[in-house]
Amino acid sequence: MRECARDKQQISGACHHWLVEGLTPRFAWQIRQAVDLGPAVVAAGARHKLSERLVGLLAARGHASPAALDAWAADARAGLRDPALLPDAAAFVARVGRAVDGRERCLVFGDFDADGLTGLAILAIALRRLGLDVATYVPDRTDEGHGLSSAAIERARVNDRTLIVTADCGTSSGLEIELARAAGIDVLVTDHHRPPPALPAAAAVVNPMRADSTYPDRGLSGAGVALKCAQLLLGDEALELADLAAIGTVADVAPLVGENRSIARLGLELMRSRPRPGIAALLSAARVDAARISPESLAFGLVPRLNAGGRVGDAEVAARLLLAQDAAEAERLAAELEAANGVRRELLATALAEARAAVDAQPDAPVTIVAGPWPAGIIGLVAGRLADERGRPAVVFCNSADPWRGSARSGGFDIVAALATMAELFDRYGGHSAAAGCHMPAANFVEFCRRLQEGAADLRPTQPSLLIDLVVEPHDVDYRLLRELAGLEPVGTANPQPLVGIRGMVVSRVRRANGGHSQLVLRKGAEVLDGICFGRDDLPDVLRDGDRLDIVARLDSRTFGGYESLQLEIRDVGPAGSLDQVAPPLSQPVRAA
Ligand SMILES: [Mn+2]
Fold first, then answer.
1. Model confidence over 519-566: pLDDT tens digits?
2. Rounded to the nearest whole angstrom, what is the distance from the C-alpha of residue 51 to the centroid of ligand 1?
3. Residue numbers of the domain that contains 428
4. Which residue, of 455, 488, 505, is where some domain finishes?
5. What is the whole-number distance in angstroms between the Cα of residue 430 and the centre of ligand 1?
């Protein structure tokens, strides 16, 4: 063992220095590959008054040409595409025009999650602005499931509604659309889901994912497609609805690059400056300061509340909230959602505890599979948590009715491809590489477990990783760096929060904080920096004053007692020198254009 220079810090005979070295990072650290900036890129950065460090960060994230930097720095509206390029745009406009001329009554049908609900609100507002009589319909998650439902068609029929417009669904509802046609109802589909081989016989299928689509951006959410349809009808006036589209975009974890970045920028600005009543009520329920609203606060504050109705109560409440015109009504509906969200939280906590207890009995299984009497609206959340915690795929079933409902999360494994190899076990299944769902007769459970575990036998739990944007010395951590990092906003999916690796920070104080977190005071020269490490209550046991650490953190600014100060949101810690041991990228640096 190495000689310890700090005898007084020896603990129960062991040298403390050894303990710090024994502190290994929880994550696999990776450093984003630096790009060799050419003079044209440096010049483009200077033209937009971006610091060279920020240009370097952007280039390493793939914005490595003058054109990409121009697009990044441009006005948000400049990033919007021409909605007329969407497939069936002309048919959509023509059919709505006929409805206006004929004073037809319409029904807007939206999926029960936050993307569908915001898409529904966008379309309902846009169609009403044209003078149409519009009713809305949100299907029940348990009774009706995803896609246009026959109950909605029946509702339209008895109320003499002759046009249905879908939001975030409908591309796979061929049978229901036939039913509607037989009842004399036309359907306009607006959607972003991957289409089946045959498109439905709708009056229009506005979906950028169609095989024949030439739309230049394939990342739109369902609410994003709804916004583009509103643009077709209202022109620039539709951009007042970008707040709703931004929520749907974040809720659907759509990439915040390309057109989605523009939608997010426009929408966040609207929510900061003049939120509509429903959003103002949700922000105050979630205790989100409108001035600090971000994709992250939407994802953690607003989206779970909008989804709560669909999961444990009535999703129509969320639709009415988004459409509410006065503050009093909005507050009442937001309180209803708040109650549903509380129930959702309790159900999730109970289901998670029960599921964890069950899977503890199968520690070595390559896939976590568990069934329990949990609500169908909760099992996807349970599967997501188990996949994260255990670093491997998870499938969670609701077994309270036969067929069972199942929800799967990939944990880095193509789950829908695995389900496809045993399609005969399901009544139905679907999804994408990261998340999938199925309906399965209870009798098939044993066979399902056997085949999925066998198929995944080679899988090993993966150590989650942190991708570091920039490695700096402690004296580089200042407000200037924070401002430059803010140049990457809005951050979210596909444009993540920038992480900074900081070399050799010295621990000045460490203590346990409420809620299983640790608070650290770290020295940089003569000054100190406050840090918080969420979800780690072990640090006070392994760290002592004077220890030298490398840390990976996100920079933030906190206001406390009227003073603003930098704060480090620490994602991981390792002994000093850890950052120098991160393996360099295997490939050669990319040269910028
Ligand atoms: Mn969607």
1. 999 998 788 999 999 989 999 999 999 999 999 999 999 887 888 889
2. 37
3. 346-455
4. 455
5. 14
